[in-house]
Design brief:
The structure holds 2 protein chains of 2 kinds. By secondary structure, chain A is an all-alpha fold. Chain A is built from 14 helices and no strands. Chain A folds into 2 domains: 72 residues, no CATH class; 218 residues, MetI-like fold, CATH 1.10.3720.10. Helix content of chain A is 77%, strand content 0%. By secondary structure, chain B is mainly alpha-helical. Chain B has one domain: Orthogonal Bundle (MetI-like fold), CATH 1.10.3720. The chains are: A mainly alpha, B mainly alpha. At the A-B interface, helix 1, helix 6, helix 7, helix 8 and helix 12 of A face helix 4, helix 5, helix 8 and helix 10 of B.
Chain lengths: 313, 308
């Protein structure tokens, strides 16, 4: 077990190194000369050259990559070209809304999608099953911002149940916080729900054919406990895996959802950075999101033994 | 007890007499043949395929479909509601939304098909190399793992930040983001095919590797690749609209569904129809492509169909 954990953790290092190399190359080949930007309009070529040397921009690619990685390991993600603020600070300011959105979406999606998939597998072939599967195809097909606008139009503009846009910090109270997050979370979660419901249904169909399910039925266990205690437990590994992989959808979708609902999070930061070509910020956000994604999937891998004690490493 | 049970000795001529022929309770199954029969048996392919075909025709014949110049500005007729003259209304610059939506189909379809094609070709090549060249496999798969751990929309956004917005660059950026998934699929198929007895037989006959790939491996990757390509196409259309929507995709001069929505965004609370129509077209097209993919999967790969 311990050996497996060590091996699995070590295996993420090359992956992160490739992500880092890619993200670094992004800035390296980005058009525009940071030294010229910093030097300003009145600078002479000598000034620009001096700044370039002081920033170490004249050194070879791999040397710069090395010092860049070293900076990141110390928590220094560089300085924004546009605001002159450290990227790490900008990310810290924007992280709460995005984290809130992700957590609410995750909870909402899992609590809707898993029962949906279970019921669809139980009632396989009936109209309930077909409706769930139909919803799943729809969820894959309708882009997140379309769902977002539709929800905002119906529930915020027409019915006036929830706020249209914006974000209220958690410190201002739970109710205003959640009120602002429900619509974005449903919009963002639609693809995610579709994905999880589909995998849950598929896995449950397989598990429900096992002998011990028949045994459970024969001994008179009720349907709910068969589905959720006997079967779901054994279907947990693929479901949890897809929940982890699906985080990528959430991250990508958050960029758009935050634009639709005017949430001042990391997604908005990314969009603004792209429109201004603020490469250090883009770099920092991509790096952070990828790191989180790898980390989440690492943790899920390590948790497999918890969901399925039969797995031994 | 023994009296009620027939022992072998009891079997008389009467009990073994042939049973009367069963009445015809099952009517003869009418098997439809040809294209119509195939459509009948695979309704998702029929529905999805028809809609995709209609969209392609719409994109090709856009100038003939009672459209006007989609970029023609008319400040006097800004933000008109949908009417007999302006079917989908006009946007804040007075451009006809109907014409823009019809022309916008071109960008979405071109991006979708081009990405599906490029990602398939690149993924096939990488997957084949990875499946056959042992020393390259480790390196390639680590690189793919790395690319895959950057969420694909974010990867496309990052690539778009490097270049000017153009349809070609959008295609390139989305293709790069889709390649890892396709290569993984191909690699998996190749590795499982290599264990097949007929491949072993070919090897033992002294068939050269390129011939084995061409004759035994490639034909078997076509089915899963086709299915995957439709999903890549659907996802590429969504990513294109997202890129255009946040202003990092197709340049604003070219009408694309994402662009129309991006421009309608500022007014969506008062003039929701500008966002509504491209959104409906985009969703229906992606839905049709996904249906086509599901149908193809069921028809081409019954094993996979049972699993999902």
């Amino acid at each position: 077990m311990f050996a497996y954990v060590v091996r699995r953790v070590l295996a993420t290092i090359p992956v992160m190194a490739i992500v880092a190399l890619f993200v670094f190359s992004l800035l390296y080949i980005a058009p525009g000369d940071p030294a010229a930007v910093i030097a300003g309009d009145q600078a002479t070529p000598d000034d620009v050259e001096r700044i370039r040397q002081s920033l170490g921009l004249d050194r070879p690619y791999l040397v710069r990559f090395g010092s860049w990685v070293w900076d990141i390991l110390r928590g220094d993600l560089g300085v924004s070209i546009f605001t002159n603020l450290p990227v790490a600070t900008m990310i810290k300011q924007r992280i709460e809304p995005t984290l809130s959105l992700m957590i609410v979406t995750l909870c909402l999606a899992v609590s809707i999608a898993v029962p949906m998939g279970v019921v669809a597998a139980w009632k396989v072939g009936t109209w309930i099953d077909r409706m769930v599967m139909g919803f799943a195809v729809l969820g894959f097909s309708v882009p997140v911002f379309v769902v977002g606008y539709l929800l905002a139009y119906v529930f915020a503009l027409e019915l006036d149940w929830l706020p249209v846009q914006g974000y209220t910090a958690f410190s201002q109270g739970f109710v205003p916080w959640i009120e602002n997050l429900i619509l974005p979370a449903v919009a963002l979660g639609s693809v995610y729900i579709a994905l999880i419901a589909r995998i849950t249904r598929a896995t449950m169909l397989e598990v429900l054919q096992q002998d011990y399910i028949r045994t459970a039925r024969a001994k008179g266990a009720n349907q709910v406990s068969i589905l959720f205690l006997h079967a779901l437990k054994n279907a947990a590994v693929p479901i949890v895996t897809v929940i982890g992989i699906g985080i990528a959808l959430l991250i990508g979708g958050a960029v758009v959802t935050e634009s639709v609902f005017a949430i001042p999070g990391l997604g908005r930061l990314t969009v603004d950075a792209i429109l201004r070509r603020d490469y250090p910020v883009i770099q920092g956000v991509v790096l952070l999101f990828s790191f989180v994604y790898v980390l989440v999937n690492l943790v899920i891998d390590l948790l497999y033994t918890l969901f399925d004690p039969r797995i031994r490493y | 007890m023994s009296a009620s049970v027939l022992s072998p000795g009891d079997v008389s001529a009467a009990t073994v007499k042939a049973a009367a022929p069963l009445p015809d309770i099952m009517p003869p199954v009418k098997v439809r043949k040809g294209l119509w029969g195939f459509m009948y048996r695979n309704p998702s392919i029929a529905i999805g395929g028809t809609i995709v075909l209609l969209m392609i025709l719409m994109a090709i014949f856009a100038p003939l479909l009672w459209t006007v110049d989609p970029t023609a500005l008319a400040p006097a007729r800004r933000t008109r509601e949908p009417s007999a003259q302006y079917w989908f209304g006009t946007d804040m610059l007075g451009r006809d939304v109907y014409s823009r939506v019809v022309y916008g189909a071109r960008v979405s379809l071109i991006v979708g098909f081009a990405v599906a094609f490029c990602a398939s070709v690149a993924g096939l090549t990488i997957g084949l190399i990875s499946g056959f060249v042992r020393w390259a496999d480790g390196i390639i798969m680590r690189v793919m793992d790395g690319l895959m751990s950057i969420p694909s929309i974010l990867l496309a956004i990052a690539l778009m930040a490097l270049t000017r917005g153009s349809v070609g660059n959008v295609i390139l950026a989305i293709t790069v983001a889709e390649i890892p998934r396709v290569s993984r699929l191909v690699r998996g198929v190749v590795l499982s095919l290599r264990e097949q007895p007929y491949v072993d037989a070919a090897v033992s006959c002294g068939t050269r590797t390129p011939v084995i790939i061409w004759r035994h491996i490639l034909p078997n990757t076509i089915a899963p690749m086709t299915v995957q390509a439709t999903y890549v196409c659907a996802s590429a259309m969504i990513v294109e609209s997202i890129l255009s929507f946040i202003g990092a995709g197709t340049p604003p001069i070219i009408p694309s569904w994402g662009n129309i929505m991006a421009e309608g965004r500022a007014l969506w609370q008062v003039k929701p129809y500008i966002v509504f129509f491209p959104a409906v077209f985009l969703s229906i097209t992606v839905l049709a492509v996904n249906l086509l993919g599901d149908g193809l999967r069921d028809a081409l790969d019954p094993r996979m169909a049972k699993r999902l």
